[in-house]
Design a protein that fits this description.
Pfam families: HATPase_c, HisKA_3, PAS_3, PAS_9, SBP_bac_3. It is an enzyme of class 2 (transferase). There is one protein chain. By secondary structure, this protein is an alpha+beta fold. It is built from 21 helices and 28 strands. Helix content is about 45%, strand content about 25%. The longest helix has about 60 residues. The chain starts with a helix and ends with a strand. The relative contact order is 0.04. The N terminus is likely disordered.
Length: about 800
């Protein structure tokens, strides 16, 4: 009943806390009120993290500090809210990109978030606290903490970066969450923990963390803001006005309800627990005295009952063991015969009778010579003496028994000497090996067939085997095809220990050993290509492929084939050489084309420019001499001057397109110039970052990087639908790196085929410069293109 009353009181307090406040006058302009009247429904997205926002399953509604704040703003602005909860900030930002969220409270302003949101002024300051055990007492100075007092903090996080940069004396202990940080303090793995006020307010209410207290303020507050969609710029100033109109008293009550750290409870007082402990110890002693008295009364009776029970249990166990022994002997898959010294059978289990084809009891008192005609008395007595002389050791051999119907039964015979009471017996164990012999014959046939197949395979078949864990690996089988491949027979390769490893070309030994060792260490498939030498010293290319197979208990085998790929390798090398020559020819043609472009640009700029200049002078002279004679002539001359000016601009554009003169000022200036042109033509902002000083770069490489930049920006304009483009150029050791990144729709590089000539052209141009091109992109996450070319 008390529990339900407490729950009812909490619900009433929560309802009173979230009740609509008194109307507050918010100073909005007429345009803002008009816009607000047209947008009465807001979609609010919150990250479900207590105490800012959490789902109350009993009331089936959201509650928390951010929820109360937004409900107050909605009441003050007279708008309707549609709530959407998300697991984390990344999921919330994805919903914003999809156009599913208009407003998001409780976010911190970040550079990445500025692309998605417009942020209000901060409405709540949540400090980061230094938490320790209550026994610490006084406040702690962070600058005086030594390295022997580790501080647990969630890494990666902004507060961890702040502590590293501000307090170099701290020894930070990384954890994954604030809960884990507090547990490390309780487990004495860390002296203190850094937790923000909101999370400590929530976690300190749990009994596990009741003995922890705040000992210092770190000095890095978390400023919470209300984020609104960027395509509603009118909403941000409205939210700022509403937040400024929020009474300070309301904000203070909001903080006290959700973020304030609870005070120690009465039950935590040491005196209460000491008195309660004394009462419990007294009650425990009384109970122990009563139990001891009762146990003395029962000891005598229990002792007598134990003796009787032990006697009964031993008798039952003996009877059960006898029944189990008889049953096991009759149900055994092995035939058992007890034979006296005169070779007559004294006992036979049911299996032996069935194996020999007799009815129940039909084997007893028969001599063994009836089942084994070759077992005369002299041979039997010899076996008896050997088994009796090696008591404790069994004799094994295979034989054939004659069954009752005259048929023959192959069996595995084991003889063991046994003394039972005053008699001596020879126990004969019979095992039917009919299936074993059949399987052995099939195995021998299979091995012969396998050797025949391996000998006729156009390659060398082999098996590597590890007999047990950590044992050395060696060749267990090499096919006879080795003679045709390398001129050595399989016996020569196995007996000499040469194996395949002895055939590898000396220059390829390292690659062979590294690939084989990697496959052996990981128990995985093995693949290697390289050169081998035949008996005659001839060099051949070989391809080794072996599949690993685990047989249990650390035993692993690798079955594989060595193929002769000399012809294919020769064709592959010729093809690679042909590709290299084609790439060199393409580089030469590209260089010739760039030189021709530069020459044409100079001729167009110089010669056409001179002609146009003379034409402009002639037109001006004609205007001075004859324009006053005819008013129509003046209009014609003005039209000619405009055409000449357009021709001047056209000549400059053609010359610039063929070879921009800015390239003579260096690749850094050319990149900035191209970015400004792209920005002016497309209205897409370009962020350029180039160093002030660059190492000397060859003209061919500068032109190549500039052409790659032009092609990349063309792709951004045609396909990316980007909002911003970032260009970076920096030296990295002996290479120069150009990075082009956009925030467009991106793509999957694996799905781009050979039909994308823009990407193919860029890759080929980078290869001609001796560099490397990387493309990182995912749908809806933009594209980053990185070019690395050597400086020398």
């Amino acid at each position: 009943m008390i529990r339900w009353l407490c729950l009812l009181v909490c619900c009433c307090l929560s309802l009173a806390a979230v009740a609509s406040p008194e109307p507050v006058e918010i100073g909005l302009s007429a345009e803002q009120r008009t816009w607000l009247a047209e947008h009465r429904q807001w979609r609010v997205g919150v990250v479900l993290q207590a105490p800012y926002a959490q789902q109350d399953r009993r009331l089936r509604k959201l509650s928390g500090a951010n929820v109360e704040l937004m409900e107050w703003l909605a009441g003050a602005l007279q708008v309707e809210l549609q709530w959407h909860g998300y697991a984390d900030t990344a999921e919330l930002e994805a919903a914003r990109r999809a156009g599913q969220v208009d407003v998001a409270p409780g976010l911190s302003q970040t550079p990445a978030g500025l692309r998605l949101w417009l942020f209000s002024d901060p409405y709540l300051r949540v400090p980061h606290l230094l938490v320790g055990e209550r026994s610490v007492g006084a406040a702690v100075d962070l600058e005086r903490l030594g390295g022997d007092e580790p501080v647990a903090v969630r890494i990666p996080s902004g507060v961890a970066d702040f502590l590293r940069g501000t307090y170099s004396n701290l020894r930070l202990r990384p954890v994954r969450s604030e809960r884990e940080a507090l547990r490390q303090v309780l487990d004495r793995q860390a002296r203190y923990a850094v937790v923000d006020e909101a999370q400590f307010s929530r976690l300190s209410r749990e009994a596990e963390f009741a003995d922890l207290a705040v000992v210092a303020d770190v000095g890095l507050p978390q400023l919470l803001r209300v984020a609104s969609r960027r395509d509603w710029p009118q909403l941000a100033p409205i939210l700022d006005s509403a937040l400024r109109a929020l009474p300070a008293k309301e904000l203070e009550q909001l903080r006290n309800r959700w973020l304030a750290t609870p005070q120690p409870r009465l039950s935590e007082a040491p005196g209460v627990w000491q008195n309660l402990s004394l009462v419990l110890v007294t009650l425990l002693l009384v109970c122990m005295l009563l139990i001891a008295w009762q146990r003395r009364q029962l000891q005598g009776l229990e002792r007598r009952l134990r003796d009787v029970r032990s006697t009964l249990e031993q008798r039952e166990l003996a009877e059960e063991a006898l029944r189990l022994t008889q049953f096991s002997s009759d149900q055994s898959t092995v035939g058992i015969l007890w034979v006296n010294w005169d070779s007559h059978v004294r006992y036979a289990n049911r299996t032996a009778e069935q194996m020999l084809g007799y009815e129940t009891g039909g084997v007893v008192e028969r001599p063994l010579s009836e089942f084994e005609p070759g077992l005369n008395m002299d041979r039997w007595l010899n076996l008896w003496r050997r088994a009796r002389g090696n008591e404790g050791e069994a004799l094994h051999f295979e034989s054939e028994c004659r069954r009752a119907d005259g048929s023959r039964l192959p069996v595995d015979v084991t003889l063991s000497f046994l003394r039972f009471r005053q008699a001596e017996y020879l126990v004969v164990y019979l095992t039917d090996v009919t299936e074993r012999r059949r399987a052995r014959a099939a195995l021998e046939e299979s091995e012969a067939r396998l050797k025949g197949i391996a000998a006729n395979v156009p390659g060398l078949v082999f098996r590597l085997e590890r007999p047990y864990a950590d044992a050395p690996v060696d060749f267990a089988f090499i096919g006879e095809g080795s003679g045709a491949l390398v001129g050595y027979s399989a016996a020569e390769l196995l007996d000499s220990g040469r194996g395949i490893r002895g055939l590898v070309h000396p220059d390829d030994q390292d690659g062979y050993w590294s690939s084989q060792q990697a496959a052996l260490d990981a128990d995985r498939d093995w693949h290697w290509q390289g050169r081998i030498l035949t008996r005659d010293g001839e060099q051949r290319w070989a391809d080794i492929k072996a599949s690993a197979r685990s047989l249990g208990e650390g035993r692993t085998v690798w079955d594989g084939v060595v193929w002769d790929i000399s012809d294919n390798k020769r064709i592959e090398l010729e093809l690679a050489d042909s590709r290299e020559r084609l790439r060199e020819l393409s580089a030469h043609l590209e260089s010739v084309r760039e030189e021709e472009k530069a020459r044409i640009a100079r001729e167009v700029h110089d010669e056409l420019g001179q002609v146009l200049t003379v034409l402009k002078l002639e037109t001006s002279m004609c205007e001075l001499a004859y324009a006053s004679l005819d008013s129509g002539l003046q209009e014609r001359l003005d039209s000619m001057k405009r055409l000449i000016a357009q021709l001047f601009q056209l000549v400059r554009d053609v010359a610039t397109a063929l070879r921009p003169p800015i390239l003579d000022a260096g690749i850094a200036s050319a990149i900035e110039w191209q970015a400004r042109r792209f920005e002016a033509r497309t209205q897409i902002p370009c962020l350029v970052e180039v160093p002030e000083q660059l190492p000397v770069l060859a003209d061919a490489k500068a032109i190549g990087l500039f052409r790659i930049l032009q092609e990349a920006l063309t792709n951004v304009l045609r396909h990316a639908e980007a909002h911003t483009v970032a260009l970076r150029l920096w030296p990295d050791g002996d290479t120069l790196v150009l990075e082009i990144a956009d925030d467009g729709r991106g793509f999957d590089p694996a799905t781009v085929g050979g039909g994308s000539f823009g990407l193919v052209g860029m890759r080929e141009r980078v290869l001609m410069l001796g560099g490397h091109l990387d493309i990182v992109s995912r749908p809806e996450e933009g594209t980053t293109l990185t070019v690395r070319v050597p400086l020398e």
